[in-house]
Design a protein that fits this description.
This protein is 30% helix and 25% strand. It is built from eight helices and 14 strands.
Length: 247
C-alpha cells in the first residue's frame, strides 16, 4: 500500500503564513502538521512508501524537510509543476499525476495533509481489509450548516455506502466525510479514468463521490475526532493546544 499525501494546495486562507511556505510543514509543538500524521502512518505494516504530491513553488522546501526524516518507509516528493493557486491542478488531478509519474499499481491510502488526528490510520486500514472494498471515512456531524459544506453519505447497517452528496442543501444523513480514503488496486482503473469520465478535479471528495457511484464502497466511522487546520484561527488554536499538552 502506498500512502499518498495530497499537499499541492497554496493555503491562501492562512495569508502571509503560507505565502511562501507549505501549510503541512507548519510547526505544531515539536513536530509539524504532516509530521504528526506520518508518525502514525509509518507504523502501518501494509504501507511501504510515503508519496507527497506538492507544487513546484514548495517542492524544494519539502525536499529540504525530507533530509532530516527518520521514517522506516521511504519518502518520495512529487512536484506537479504548478506555481500559483490559479494554475493548480486540483486534488484529484494531483493524485492522477502522481499515479502516472510513479507508475503506481498498488492499494492506496490517500490523505489530506492539513489535519491533526486523534485515532490511528491502522484502524482504517484494518476496516478496509475486513470489507475487501475501497473505503472512505465518516463521522457524525449534528450541525446542518456544517453538513451543507462537506460530503455527506448514506449507509446501510453494514456501513456500505448507499449514496454520497457534496454540500447538500438538504442532507440525507448526519454522516460527514473527511478527506481520507483507501482505494484498492482493483479499483485503480476507475480512479485513472475518473476525470475524463466527468469527475470533478478540485476537491478530493469529488473522487470519492465518483467512486461511490461506480463501485462498492464502505465507510469507516472514525473512532475519535480530528482537528482540521483551515484558517489562521484554527492553526493558532492547534499551536496553543500543543503548547499546553492537550494534543
Amino acid at each position: 500500500m502506498k500512502n499518498i499525501v495530497i499537499a499541492a494546495g497554496y493555503a491562501t486562507r492562512l495569508g502571509e503564513l503560507t505565502k511562501n511556505f507549505p501549510k503541512p510543514l507548519l510547526k505544531i509543538g515539536n513536530s509539524t502538521i504532516l509530521g504528526r500524521m506520518l508518525d502514525d502512518i509509518d507504523k502501518i505494516d501494509d504501507v511501504d512508501e510515503h508519496i507527497i504530491i506538492t507544487n513546484h513553488k514548495f517542492a524544494g522546501i519539502f525536499e529540504e524537510w525530507k533530509k532530516d526524516l527518520h521514517y522506516s518507509k521511504p519518502v518520495t516528493i512529487v512536484d506537479d509543476g504548478t506555481e500559483t493557486n490559479e494554475t493548480r491542478l486540483g486534488a484529484v488531478c494531483d493524485l492522477l499525476f502522481a499515479m502516472d509519474k510513479l507508475h503506481i499499481d498498488d492499494d492506496l491510502l490517500v490523505v489530506a495533509a492539513d489535519n491533526l488526528l486523534f485515532f490511528s490510520f491502522q484502524e482504517f486500514v484494518d476496516f478496509a481489509r475486513e470489507k475487501g472494498t475501497s473505503c472512505i471515512m465518516c463521522h457524525e456531524q449534528p450541525s446542518i450548516e456544517k453538513l451543507q459544506r462537506t460530503g455527506v453519505v448514506e449507509l446501510d447497517e453494514n456501513h456500505r455506502v448507499l449514496g454520497m452528496e457534496e454540500k447538500p442543501q438538504v442532507p440525507k444523513s448526519h454522516w460527514a466525510v473527511p478527506p481520507f480514503y483507501i482505494y484498492l488496486k482493483k479499483d485503480l482503473d476507475l480512479v485513472r479514468h475518473s476525470v475524463e469520465n466527468g469527475c470533478g478535479k478540485d476537491a478530493p471528495g469529488n473522487l470519492a463521490h465518483y467512486m461511490v457511484e461506480h463501485t462498492t464502497m464502505h465507510a469507516w466511522p472514525m473512532s475519535a475526532g480530528r482537528f482540521d487546520i483551515g484558517s489562521l484561527d484554527t492553526y493558532y488554536e492547534a499551536v496553543e493546544l500543543a503548547r499546553t499538552g492537550k494534543i
